[in-house]
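In the present case, backbone shapes were mapped to integers, as reproduced here:
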Amino acid sequence: MLDIKTFGPQGGNVLYKALSHPLIVEEMKTLEAALKGKRVAFYDPDEYAPTLCGLYPAIQPALILTHDSEQVGQADGLGGQKCAIVHAANCDVDAILALSFEDAKMRSRLGAFIGAIPLYTLGIARLPDMFFPYKRPYLDKCNFATNFAFFRETEHFSTRLVTANYWSNYGAESLRYWLRLYDEQGLILAEWHHDVENPAAGVVIDSQEVRERFNLPHFTGQLFIHVIGAKGHDVVKYALDSFGRKGDPSLSVTHDANAWPSMRFATLPAPDDDETVYLWLQNSHGTTIPAGAITLNPMGEDEHYPIAQPIGPYETVALDVGALLPKWRWPAQLELRSGQHLVRPRYEIVQRGRTRIAHMNVERANLQPDPALRTMSPLLGRGFVLPFPIPNPALYESFVQPNPMSEALTHMPLRLDVFDEAGQECGQHFLGNLPRNYQGAIALHELLQKPGHAELVYDFRDGGEADGWPHALMRYRHRKTDHAAETSFGGHIFNTMMTWRNEPQSYAGPPPGLTTRLFLKLGQTLDSTMLRSFCYLIYPTSLREGRAPSQTRLHLHVADGAELAQADITIQPSGSYLLQPHKLFDASLLDQAGEGGYVLIRDLTCRLFGYHGLDNEAGGFSLDHMFGF
């Protein structure tokens, strides 16, 4: 296990991203070499030690120095006692490491107390000044707007990352995407920057263009992204399309990785009889993952299958899930115990000549079942709601599979509420108090005979507990073409004026979140085939009473960020709408918007939720949930 902190009052996630940044790894290895064989005392004023030692286990303290008078003489966790920093010169150590990025401050503060003992700091691990266009503390979260993306350009597959300059909404004046591409072995293939000068401009990073630009061989690896100049928040959001080439009909989409590691991930389906499921394991750190440090197990079962091979720094490994767990088949679901070595992993399903790619979800370690969820105020209606589309059942099969997404959850008391596009309820279907190892998949196309959507909600009629983190995996298949896609997401309280803790969540600011800002990319031409974008917009309501129809405005943007046109639509409460830009905007306007253009979906009266994708005339399609900002 990688023993690190990614959350906490000291901004653990920012510290993690600062210490694990690829540009810093070599500097930290230099520090490891300088301290090798030395007896080192730590001065740790901000509790950085667990994350530092987890990421760089060769750096370990022999002694802890403290400036807290009440901690002097207390156990240091190393078999000794904490010593006062003012007595540092008398300590039996060869070096002192001050766990601070402020080198000059530490030297001036400690110089009078350490005598001739050499002082080291984390100043060696600071990023260059070019990464900090604004004057703010080094560990400000917006200084580390970083993320990884699965990135591939081979003979048969391409990828394309698409997003927009949403930081301009928070006052960012100009952005620079600093990018580093790793190959399958974890070697650096290319390093470059992508400047975004215009507010609201589209951002496209295409694997084929990158390969041609740098004259690269085919590659399958990961792209590290650092957005320099971010304001407002540090989350790097994007859609990642995956395309089949040279006659391969594959088309799928996934989205941004969570930019922090987790102990466990869920929503990994076991393979069906004619499927091969590959779990893409991408080492997010500059140290090797030991053999056996990562395991898979059937969800809810104490049956663990270790991954026998080590995974080198930034290496990408495709694991054949069925070969590792041969007796488990869909609709069984699997759990990945990653030991905090990975950010959100992707998986890819190969079936009957097509592939589809999707992501696993972080399984929460800090959530416990909450009895308050059984007695929520009626002012919150049905409370937590997880909405997802049911495309036209005449054309698509649709399945949903509930998933436990916290380590402590043993049961899932759930019900499905089904609605047509006009918002009329078409049935309730009690699923029961499902066990953690539930292996079912509910056929949605059998519950509704026309397009609409379903919502997963808590229902305690058979008992059970809930944690406020309901999740599910949704799988869709075109009846005629056999093309398939899948996605997963979690529930929230939607569209209630009354609040419960941090719900209904807002894209920016405190609850209640009652507005919409969703990003829908436009289509593109791929190998002479036109791909058109679409999305299923859903107006979920935890409490329908008092809700009016939406007042949704669609803003068509050119790739450079300029607004080109608008269109208005209306969605009924608990209703849904299939949005297809090519049916709302003239073809000439879409041509002007160009590749990299997009539709911004805005509503100031309600919070909509959506699932987006691309389709083509051959019945191929992709689908994943949308992101907002």
Remarks:
- Helices lie at 12-20, 22-35, 49-55, 103-114, 207-214, 321-324, 581-584, 587-593.
